[in-house]
Every structure is written in structure tokens, then in C-alpha cells.
Amino acid sequence: xxxxxxxxxxxxxxxxxxxxxxxxxxxxxxxxxxxxxxxxxxxxxxxxxxxxxxxxxxxxxxxxxxxxxxxxxxxxxxxxxxxxxxxxxxxxxxxxxxxxxxxxxxxxxxxxxxxx
Length: 116
What we know:
The protein has one domain (3-109): Helicase, Ruva Protein, domain 3, CATH 1.10.8.290. Helix 3 packs antiparallel against helix 6 (89-105). It has helices at residues 3-7, 11-24, 29-40, 44-52, 57-62, 89-105, 110-113, and strands spanning 77-78, 81-82. The chain has seven helices and two strands.
């Protein structure tokens, strides 16, 4: 019920906040894109299309080419929730993205963020 509001949020509306968050901490938009590409399978052109089309988070993840097979390695707390314990699949994907953006902003090495 309350998650519906999040699912209907426009990805392009939140995306600039992701960029600001990572750039404030000395990371780049390109690194952010690397993280998003790793998670979703979107290439640069497809990601820009999702932003331009103002898709919802639900559609952003529904249309993602392929969720990375290593997403289960993303663990920890984000927004007060332990990601590995979130049961609702779409919310889990959204929190995966939040967690990766957070790790990037906190200065974690890219190899660790991408679970290599």
C-alpha cells in the first residue's frame, strides 16, 4: 500500500538526487552510471531513454534488461531496512539501487560495490 507511492515515483525525478549525492562526495556521474548498469543491465543509451521517458521506478525495473546475478551479495541496512530481509521484489530492487548509490557516495572502492 504505502509502497505504491514509491513505485509510482518517476526515476528521472530521483536520478538528479543520486548524481548530487555522489558528486558531493567526490564521485562522478560516470561511476554512478557504472553502478546502475551493473545492477540493471541498462547501457548508456537505454538509461538515458528511461530518464527522458520519465518512467516510474516500477517500469524502470520491469524494463531492465537483466538484474545482475550477484545482487544477492548486496547486504546491509538502507533506509532502516536490512536489504536481504526485504520480501517484496520491487522494493528489494529499489533498495539495492539505494544501497549501491550510498556505498558509492561513502567512497567504497568500485570493485567492492560491484561485488567483484
